[in-house]
Amino acid sequence: FLNSFLDEFGYYETGRRIRQDFINIFKFAVKRDYIQNNVAREIEPLIRTKAIESHPAITELNRISEFGEVIYKLNNNSENIVLAIAIKLLPHVFARPSELRRMAWKDIDFTNAQWTYEMTKITNGFTRKTMRLVPLSSQVVSMLRELYKETGEFDYCFPANTQVGYINKKHLADAVDRCSIDRKVQSIHGFRASARTYLEEIKELGYRTD
Q: What pLDDT, on the 0 to 100 scale, is given for residue 71?
């Protein structure tokens, strides 16, 4: 019943994270000999009862010109430099929006044209940290050098007056909306799917999809 209730009202992800929080808390206690066993691991993992809905993304080969129009609109936006470059990078680096928003200058290697950052992955209830390396094209390096002149004194590439110190999801989404891009067709989360599909389908590009 709990599985169905959480999933039906859109709280599956919340429930999954709460379970993981309990596991991490008890793991902390076990390491410090406060308790002997991590009983939180006995909590049954939640099971989805509804199909996972993918984020809207243009992926069909016969719509590649439509995807090109999206990129054109992003490149010709009229935002301030922080948001302007943030949304321009969406189809370039294939990162999750949350990862892009917290891009930090310490993680950018201009010499080797790389962006390396730590990300969190949860697999079968276990949290692990892993490093992700993103090669940066000459276009991206050029945009970041331009941005550095404006925000290089901050920790984050896209600083904002928020609790975390960088732009939030609404900043990014609203900027895309102002470009007249229908997020029901191409969402800010959908650029990874578009890139993944086109890199796999268009063999002439010669890129490995991974």
A: 87
- Closest by CA position to 21, among listed 135, 120, 150: 120
Nearest to 119 by CA among 108, 135, 103: 103
**What is the SS3 string spanning 72-98?**
HHHHCCCCCHHHHHHHHHHHHHCCCHH
Q: Is the pLDDT of residue 151 over 60?
A: yes
- Beta-sheet strands, E only, within 6-159: 108-109, 114-123, 126-135
pLDDT in tens, 119-130: 876 655 556 778
| pTM over cut 0.90 | no
- Among the listed ranges 99-113, 145-159, 193-207, which one has the minimum average pLDDT value? 193-207
Tokens 């599909």 belong to 197
Q: Residue 115, Cβ neighbours under 10 Å: how many?
A: 23
Q: Which DSSP symbol is given to 13? A: H
Tokens of 7: 């999933």
pLDDT per residue as tens digits for the range 39-50: 888 777 766 555
What's the helix, strand, coil split of the chain in %, to 5?
A: 50, 10, 40
Query: Measured between alpha carbons, how far apart are the two ends of the chain, in Å?
Result: 38
- Across the chain, the runs of DSSP E, i.e. the strands, are 108-109, 114-123, 126-135
